[in-house]
Specification:
Elements (H helix, E strand, L loop, with lengths): L2 H29 L13 E12 L2 E14 L4 E5 L2 E5 L5 E5 L2 E6 L6 E14 L2 E11 L4 E11 L3 E11 L4 E12 L5
Antiparallel strand pairs: 1-2, 2-3, 2-4, 3-6, 4-5, 5-7, 6-7, 7-8, 8-9, 9-10, 10-11
């Protein structure tokens, strides 16, 4: 079985499992009128301990995990609670992000992630640097993370504040857009 056939089979299994969960919930609703339907609780489908991984040539490209996810079929979006996201670089380094919520937009076949919008007290680790901001938009086609918000960048000897940023994940390059203020720690001695 080649890789595309394996992906198709895995995707088919996921769809069947989610469909089975939906049917089970529908039957449970019919049996017990006190339970809310999945759709009325804020999504077409709910998933606990959500995890999704993008692999290419046997290597992780990115991974997202959340305590809970709600899937909205009409808009092909997942709303995830307390997500953590990891972007894996060719060098083996990892860019780690975490925040309060995320909105994941899936492509036409619902197999590929087109973009992820992360928001609420977002923290990002890139090597020795820590970034804090309120939002981040991950664009999978360009493999970038960006937002127009105020961002605070800190390391042991450096503190930077700016408005707007863009990270090119493959190059591990951060560009700060406006109102950049830098503070260097003075070496004691």
């Amino acid at each position: 079985m080649n890789r595309n056939q394996a992906r198709f089979v895995i995707g088919l299994v996921v769809v069947c499992v989610l469909g089975g969960l939906g049917m089970g919930l529908w039957h449970q609703r019919q049996d017990d009128q006190e339970l809310p339907t999945v759709a009325s609780s804020g999504g077409d489908q709910r998933m606990q301990n959500f995890r999704r991984v993008k692999m290419r040539d046997g290597k992780k490209i990115w991974e997202i995990a959340a305590t809970q996810a709600r899937f909205f079929e009409d808009s092909r979006e997942l709303l995830v609670d307390s997500p953590t996201m990891s972007l894996y670089l060719d060098s083996g380094e990892v860019i780690a992000l975490r925040c309060r919520e995320g909105r994941v937009t899936l492509g036409e076949g619902m197999q590929e992630v087109v973009r992820m919008k992360l928001s609420g007290d977002l923290e990002m680790r890139i090597g020795e640097f820590s970034l804090k901001t309120q939002t981040a938009l991950y664009d999978s086609a360009q493999n970038t993370v960006s937002a127009p918000d105020v961002v605070h960048v800190a390391s042991q000897d450096l503190s930077v504040e700016a408005r707007g940023y863009r990270i090119v994940v493959d190059e591990k390059r951060v560009t700060l857009h406006a109102e950049v203020h830098t503070t260097l720690a003075r070496e004691e001695g």
